[in-house]
Amino acid sequence: MSLSERQNQILNWVQQVDYLSIETLVERFDVSSQTIRKDVNHLAELHLIRRQHGGIALMSTAENLPFDNRQYLNGVAKQKIADTLVAQIPDGASLILGVGTTVEYVAKALANHKDLQVFTNNLTVAAILCAFPSIQVRVAGGKLRHSHRDLVGVETVEFLRQFYFDFGIIGCGGLDEEMGILDFDPEEAAISRVIIDQSRNSILVCDQYKWGRKAMARVNDFSHIDQFVTDVVTEKQAELLEQHNVYLNLID
Prior knowledge:
Layout (H helix, E strand, L loop, with lengths): L4 H13 L1 E3 H8 L3 H13 L4 E3 L2 E3 L9 H4 L4 H12 L7 E4 L3 H9 L7 E4 L2 H7 L6 E4 L3 E3 L4 E3 L1 H7 L4 E6 L3 E3 L3 E4 L2 H12 L1 E7 L11 E4 L6 E4 L4 H9 L3 E4 L2
Helix pairs in contact: 2-3, 5-6, 6-7
């Protein structure tokens, strides 16, 4: 399953503006309406968007895209973000890896590290790290979210609060210039908050398309994280992060 570059851009765009008409998409991409309708049909068949009144609409702000539909989005940027981050993690460190596909790229990028202790509630991360016998892995208990392949809930939070990690790495559902870091589910947001609280260095990883994405559960404002590894920010966003004393680490 794959998307063309145009389909990828359409999907990222609609997640920021709620609704896009066919006419708007035709004008933006300078292609025929027939071509756009083929793109829309493909995205709808994959359950990535909803058709609505001559256009396409945002998925619910209460629910993220299923894992199988998120894992291939913006893969090049996510890989570079992961490589940039892991370059600063020394052998022998302790890490907590949260949920999200960018975090999973981070797990893959740890392949050459030695003697790490990695804690996670992300079952995909745990599966990735099975291939790296030099990395010790502990998986939190909790309630399984089948479509996202992770564990959440009170049991997960209580388990993580027993530890204090060198690095806490989180993804997010969305970023808002006023509200800060957002996610789609309150239990998911609670896990990210405890990761931030229990880490000496809290690090947010996500690509540029999370800005303006309308997730509903608030994690924290930007002042609670130490570092943000991403691909692109506007001048206004960079100034905002500086005001909150966040180290901005842009990929090459």
